[in-house]
Amino acid sequence: MDAATGNTVPGESTPLPTHDDALRLAYETHGPILLNYLLRLTMGNRGMAEDILQETLMRAWNHPEARTEDGQWSRGWLFTVARRIAIDHIRAAQGRTTEQLDERIEARHTATDDIDRMINTREVRNAVARLPERLRSALIEIYFQEHSVAEAAQNLSVPEGTVKSRTFYALRALHEDLTARGFHL
């Protein structure tokens, strides 16, 4: 290379890109692929994935000896570094406990919540089972099967208006039954 002009002298190979140019090229070439890979590793956490990508490129910049003969960083090296950084970030995030403010301590999940939920679920199912068949079937179609009124009407072979009225009366009967059993709705 001619030092005065910066041009390649005939017979010599092309000059290696500068450190900054190589890093820019690495970002342009490998950045989108690395980001997609990191999004999968971080389960879609874009902020964390972008932070890891930036840290990966910073490590590449700090380790020019990791460049290949043509002056570029190999994709394998970048992916290995990115994976290791991602593992460190994920482990660090899992190790941190979240602090609860005093006013939110009552909102914390407890084992008795699960037991209460199971009891409530059983009571609601029993109350639904006590409904007359015509009301129960409409309620199940709409709320448990999540069918539209038209679909429920077709499945039950009744007009849509009948499905609506049966659902209304089923909910009212369910409310009365559960209130009589001590539930406060």
From TrEMBL:
Keywords: DNA-binding, Sigma factor, Transcription, Transcription regulation. SUPFAM superfamilies: Sigma2 domain of RNA polymerase sigma factors, Sigma3 and sigma4 domains of RNA polymerase sigma factors. GO terms for biological process: DNA-templated transcription initiation. It holds the Pfam family Sigma70_r4_2. The keyword Transcription regulation applies. The keyword DNA-binding applies. Residues 27-94 form the RNA polymerase sigma-70 region domain. Residues 122-174 form the RNA polymerase sigma factor 70 region 4 type domain. Transmembrane segments: none annotated. PANTHER family: ECF RNA POLYMERASE SIGMA FACTOR SIGL (PTHR43133:SF52), RNA POLYMERASE ECF-TYPE SIGMA FACTO (PTHR43133). NCBIfam families: sigma70-ECF. Belongs to the sigma-70 factor family. ECF subfamily. This is RNA polymerase sigma-70 factor (ECF subfamily). It comes from Catenuloplanes atrovinosus. The lineage of its organism: Bacteria, Bacillati, Actinomycetota, Actinomycetes, Micromonosporales.
